[in-house]
Amino acid sequence: MKIATYNINGINGRLPVLLKWLREAEPDIVCLQELKAPQDKFPEKALRNAGYHAVWHGQKMWNGVAIIAKGLPLEEVRNALPGDDGDLHSRYIEAIVGKMLVCCLYLPNGNPAPGPKFDYKMAWFKRLKKHAKYLLSEEVPVVLAGDYNVIPTEKDVYKPERWMDNALFFPEPRKAYKELVGQGWIDSIRHLYPDETIYTFWDYFRNAYGRNAGLRLDHLLLSPQIAPRLVAAGVDKHVRGWEKSSDHAPAWIELADEGETQS
């Protein structure tokens, strides 16, 4: 089974890119972020024609998250992160897909920092850690995937010294991410490739993609009940080079069939 996360950066404007990648990569499940589309403008028909069912939580102009699945039952569980009923940002959605719980998130950017946006980022992170701990307590297979807007370590950024004043690389969110993983989650890409340079995002400016001046912002975390099935992981970097592509590339994992584990 192939599961991916992809910040599409505007699903309607980049729908041809998304459909092309779906045909090429054939993922079974995809978590999408930054839809930038209200609920009634989500391209459900186009995705259904491509073979994918979807659940989504849209928002006009900004944010928006979705989970799409091919050939698997899909049932929405929640479309907001618990802990703040006043938070109207569309940044989180959960669904039962097959026999696992798939959670798609779009963590706040936090810039400019310090300031209210950074405070919101850290409050959101605190809520995420609390909910993630609850999910682990349920002892079920969970994939917690999305754009975390966090550069976990210096290994995950081109020229770390240039990002010291950016909320993506501040000590507080890096510490929060480490604490999140420390609950018992497996950072799938780093688990398989602990020492390799792997990026998922390249800015549109200064020829960042051409210079491979990237960041690793998109992560797929696995609960202990599903982590033993992890057999492969990667980033479809070439998609970032397509015309009118998102500034992110799809990150993905492959899981062995239930009952099989990595040898």
UniProtKB/TrEMBL annotation:
Keyword Flavoprotein applies: no
Co-factor(s): Mg(2+); Mn(2+)
InterPro entries per UniProt: AP_endonuc_1 (IPR004808), AP_endonuclease_F1_BS (IPR020847), AP_endonuclease_F1_CS (IPR020848), Endo/exonu/phosph_ase_sf (IPR036691), Endo/exonuclease/phosphatase (IPR005135), ExoIII-like (IPR037493)
Statement: the UniProt record of this protein carries the keyword Signal: no
Superkingdom of origin organism: Bacteria
Pfam families: Exo_endo_phos (PF03372)
Keywords: Hydrolase, Magnesium, Metal-binding
UniProt domain Endonuclease/exonuclease/phosphatase: residue ranges: 4-248
Family, per entry: Belongs to the DNA repair enzymes AP/ExoA family.
UniProt protein name: Exodeoxyribonuclease III
Gene source species: Dyadobacter beijingensis
Taxonomic placement: Bacteria, Pseudomonadati, Bacteroidota, Cytophagia, Cytophagales
